[in-house]
Write a structure and sequence with these properties.
By secondary structure, the protein is α+β, with helices and mostly antiparallel strands. It has eight helices and 26 strands. The chain has two domains: 51-146, Purple acid phosphatase-like, N-terminal (Immunoglobulin-like), CATH 2.60.40.380; 155-442, Metallo-dependent phosphatases (Purple Acid Phosphatase, chain A, domain 2, 4-Layer Sandwich), CATH 3.60.21. Bound molecules: fe (ii) ion (FE2).
Length: 443
């Protein structure tokens, strides 16, 4: 039974206004009444423009019983809502759909597009659902998702590094190849720098267009990179640009994420965690150890609060596996980069609590370490992976070369990770589907 919902007995197949316009349009076409055909064609196009856009699923803190959905509309919805029903091949599945009210998101938006979100609760574990979003204006198509099992069970997920640049032109084929390679993946880990400028709504449009229906059917697990942060212009300060430390409002507009992160006023919701079928995924905002925009007082305070939160999650993790997702790497191979403060802060915790895998981006290359502890190869140590899915590429430096197992430059990549009981299999592919790297971790 869904909480905070009402049953509806009159879920209609489509928007009545749209259906009427379509019927008249077809009649006019049949009569070859050209001027009116043109007129109604425009009406149909306008109707399409009001369809819900940028529909995206995100995991919640309880993925076996809930799912978060975010979308935006071209016009304000008086009664924004999600309708959801247990999936069935019988096309009248929607007769039992529940209607869950959605909430408008307070977002500064230059194109008068309005964001809405709803968290579906009280769902059944391991169950396939169909849902649509909208309201009184127009409804989306019915999209599907599956809830997690309550207990550890085999699953796979996708992981991609920075999309960031030429997203529409050159990221689209890579993320679609990833989806085609693992359409049964349960979600997509995005390791930061999803776009080059987090405040630019056009870039988010490219990102959503590239994902298309994938975002509406396969949840995302994003972590904030430095480019996803707000960029404020301040006259007289160096190049006139000052980076801030909190995600642009559009990050909040695009994603409805678990509110279980550390209590930090400036960066609400930028770190969170999800337990999924035997794995604890910790999305960690690592900018505090890599971004020089922090004031000294902020850096000290934010770092301390994040570390305390992180250690508590690692110490109390009831799952077999621990995977940390963050943007910058403590073992960066980017030119002129070496995050020694991050290494000093995070690696002792990762070592102490035996983190299995750390998934990252930022260096615009592929670089995967051996298993390491205390920055040295060790039989049961942690594996650190840097990857990139977009077209911006960096040369790999020799820093930490002794820790690296596989390094690749100038290659758009995606990764498929399979978790099954005591075994984890990691497979890295280039954008054409050629396997570049593979390793397994066994408990
Ligand atoms: Fe980047």
């Amino acid at each position: 039974m869904l909480h905070h919902s009402t049953r509806t007995s009159s879920v209609k197949l489509g928007n009545p206004t749209e259906m009427t316009i379509r019927t008249i349009y077809r009649m006019l076409q049949a009569l070859k009444f050209v001027p009116l055909v043109v007129l109604f064609s425009a009406a149909l196009a306008a109707q399409t423009a009001t369809q819900p856009q940028r529909i995206i699923l995100t995991l919640t803190a309880d993925p076996a019983h809930s799912m978060a959905i975010t979308w935006r509309s071209a016009q304000a919805e008086a009664t924004p809502a999600v309708q959801v029903a247990v999936a069935s091949a019988a096309p009248n599945f929607f007769k039992d759909a529940a209607t869950v009210p959605a909430t408008p998101k307070a977002v500064a938006n230059t194109e008068l597009k309005l964001s809405y979100s709803a968290v579906l609760k009280g769902l059944k574990p391991g169950t396939q659902y169909l849902y649509r979003v909208g309201g009184d204006g127009a409804w989306s198509e019915w999209n599907g998702f599956r809830t997690a099992q309550e207990k550890p069970a085999p699953f796979r997920f996708l992981y991609v590094g920075d999309a960031q640049n030429s997203i529409h032109s050159l990221w689209s084929h890579t993320i679609r190849a990833a989806y085609a390679a693992a359409p049964d993946a349960r979600f997509i880990v995005h390791a930061g720098d999803l776009v080059a400028e987090g405040f630019d709504d056009k870039l988010w449009g490219e990102w959503h267009d590239s994902l298309g229906f994938i975002a509406a059917t396969m949840p995302s697990l994003p972590v904030v990179g430095n480019h996803d942060l707000h960029l404020a212009v301040s006259a007289g300060d160096g190049d006139g640009k000052v980076k801030n430390i909190f995600a642009a409002p559009l990050w909040t507009a695009n994603f409805t994420l678990p509110a279980n992160g550390p209590a930090i006023a400036e960066t609400p919701g930028q770190s969170y965690y999800v337990d999924y079928q035997g794995v604890r995924f910790i999305a960690l905002d690592a900018n505090v150890w890599a971004n020089d925009s922090y004031l000294p007082e902020q850096r000290e305070r934010v770092s301390a609060v994040e570390l305390k939160w992180l250690e508590e999650l690692l110490k109390t993790n009831p799952n077999r596996w621990t995977i940390v997702v963050q943007h910058q790497s403590p073992y960066s191979v980017g030119k002129d980069r070496d995050y020694d403060e991050m290494r000093a802060a995070l690696v002792p915790l990762f070592d102490k609590y035996h983190v299995d895998l750390v998934l990252m981006g930022h260096d615009h290359c592929y670089a995967r370490t051996r298993r390491i502890t205390a920055s040295k190869p060790a039989a049961n140590g942690t594996v650190y992976v840097i990857s990139v899915s977009g077209p911006k590429m960096y040369k790999v430096s020799n820093r930490h070369a002794e820790l690296m197992e596989v390094v690749r430059e100038n290659t758009q990549m995606y990764q498929v990770v399979d978790v099954e009981g005591d075994h984890l299999k990691f497979s890295a592919y280039d954008a054409t589907g050629v396997k570049v790297d593979e390793f397994t971790l066994d408990k």
